[in-house]
Amino acid sequence: MSHFALAYREQQQLFLFDRTYVIGSLLKVGGLATVLARFIVQFFWNPVVALIITLLLLALSSYMTWAFVRESQKEWISVPLCLIPSYLLWVPLMDNGLHYEFLTSILLVQAGLLIFKSVKSHKVFWGILLTIILYYTAGSTAILFAVCAAISDKSWKAIIYPVAAAACGAIAYFASAIPTWNEAFTPSLYYDLDASMPGSHWAGWISLVIVVLACRAIHCLRSERRIAYLAALAIGFLACLPFGQVIKRIKEEQPRLAYVFEHYTVNEDWDGLIKACEEAPWLPRTANYLNLAIAWKGELSDRLLTFDQKGPSGLVMTTSDRAVDVAQAHIMFAMGNVAAAQDVAFNALVSLNGFCPAMLKINAMVELMRGSYDIADKYLSLLEKAPHYRRWAKSYRRFLYDDEAVKADPILGNGRRNLSAENRFIMYTDPMTEMFPILDANPNDRRTLEYGLCYLLLAKDLNSVKHYILDYYSSPESPELPRIAQEAMVFYSEYSRNMEGIEPFGLDWCYEHGVKPETVKRFEEYQRAAVAGPVSLKKFKGTYWYYLVHTEI
Question: What is the pTM of this model?
Fold first, then answer.
């Protein structure tokens, strides 16, 4: 799953070929590391490419570490130690809370160390100058340069390098270029502001210093003893590897799968998404993506119960904080509640590390639906500055200031009709309540119609299903009543005639509202199988009757 975790970074930020954007980024502390990271991450839309690029950068990091600590080009004894920091950088990169500039800043520092090593005179001056430059281009990682340079320098004056780094951090803090002392002097600068960085992420930092220190000590030993000391140090490092963090990530299967789901969703590879979700369809978030995929394929009601559903949360799982819940933006958009989708997508734009391309696309499409063409133009202009999304943005420019083209488009036209129901910008109530006025305004939105029906069916609210059919499946223009809804009404008809407090209705009502005779005949077979026992019921596992009786929600 690691390559999908890397690919998800491309959805957390967007590199723009724009002078103002690049210069504005470079003027911030650590700006060069940020620009380099975002330039690299723009290619991560392909998970394999993301993995290859990251491995190449980590290999480059190992090489530069070795090039700094070696005493001659023929010295290979320190190579195993130089590989360890790269591994300890690899593990944190699977945490998307840690920005990719964590890696690019270390590469800048290692390049600075190679420059420092090549200096033959005025080393103190160059050491201080490089420390200052690296702090304002790479960020707090410049402290690593200062410490490693001081270890490698044979002069007592080298203590000035860490002092210079500390002074840069203090100046950046008091100048409000960096918000906290912690970020001024630690790798927390490269972690999400609203989260605490795991302690294991420090390993990538500390290991670089320890490798430089260890190699300096090894060089002081006689050649016949170096191999023994190197082996001991390597074993010690391996014992300290963050295996606990690795095991924790293996157990957190759902967050790791979310990277896979999001990749297939933003690329609209619905078959790939369905296949990825089949591993654990009963998990709520997995079910959300699975049902999203079959909904976009137009098969929601037909294939709903071919998967292990556990209630209406499998269709849409609302959270207390929707700000960065990009999955909910995708789901609301598919459900036809484009106003709620835009609310979530807009919040996600400002909550993540940088512009989220998928959320920009949703905002652009909703503004086209609204007829807010000037605003849509701004979103499209942003996307046009990103090479991977330029073609998509240009293809949607044809809808600007053309109401007829918008109305004729299957997605934009449906969205515009849905918005006419209630031009809300946010979702005030629950997802199901929001659907009713949308369907009243646009009963021909097939996807919204099926989402509403399936929501009620999964909730086992048969009385509401009956009224839903009366309201939205009773006109001559209505689509055919899905099989699972027919099964629900046949069951409810039988139930209503045998239970007090429920208004009874017979099979004539069912036939008048889309139930087919073969469904009634199959229900009779189900009743006989239910009496016969569990073995006979196996062939009815994909029916609504089986779900209704045997599934707990």
Answer: 0.86
